[in-house]
Amino acid sequence: DGLTSDPMGVANAHHLVSVSVGPVPDTWRQAKRRGALSITVGMAARSDVARHRLGHMCAPTKVEIDSGGRMHMHLPRGPDWLDHDGMLVVRIDVKSSSVFGSGVQKQFKIWWHRSFLRRVDMEAGEERLCLSPWPDGPTDVLELDVAKAWIGGLHKDLQDHREVPAKFRLVAIFADAQCSTGADVDGEWEELHEL
After folding, report:
1. Beta carbons of 185 and 61 less than 8 angstroms apart
2. Which numeric CATH code is attached to 18-181+188-194?
3. Which top-level group of life is the source organism from (predicted)?
């Protein structure tokens, strides 16, 4: 009870539409303002991970940072995901403002399972950690909300919180495959890249 699909049955096709992370460090906000922030979002099936590959990756079509310091990445319509689960990877590159400085690269990895995504109504009135991915589209979406302690790539930062704040979260929004929202958004997903 409470699952969005049968974890043992045929997987319901779904696709990723947006990812939010934050609160982000001030250096990321400054880098975005000066055009020195590069982001890539990728998805990998279990078979891809076994071969150390991302099945699909793309750059967000739009990146916003809200007043609370959360960075929202809107994505082009991705591939219909036919597996029950997958790995979501977010790569963030912050270029240095100095010619002599080195930039910062961060990669976050999380696994999701379709049955355990939370169905939410984006118009229900509760405060969301993510923005609605569509101005005029469906508001009934599937949400994955992961605290810092469960995000791969941040395990060594759980005590000192030097890389990102203690309240850092990653929120991914998926939609059922029959939803056509995002299909006309510019940008495209590329296939098979190194993980």
Report:
1. yes
2. 2.60.40.1110
3. Eukaryota
- Listed in sequence order, the residues at least 6 apart from 150 whose beta carbon sits closer than 8 Å to its beta carbon are 110
Is 116 within 8 Å of 145 (Cβ atoms)?
no
Residues found in the chain: 195
**To which residue do tokens 């169905």 refer?**
119
**Cβ-count burial of 86 within 10 angstroms (0-12 exposed, 13-18 middle, 19+ buried)?**
buried
DSSP string of 140-194, one letter each residue: EEEEEEEEGGGSBT-GGGTTT--SS-TT-EEEEEEEETT--TTTTSS---EEEEE
pLDDT tens digits, one per residue of 133-147: 444 445 578 899 999
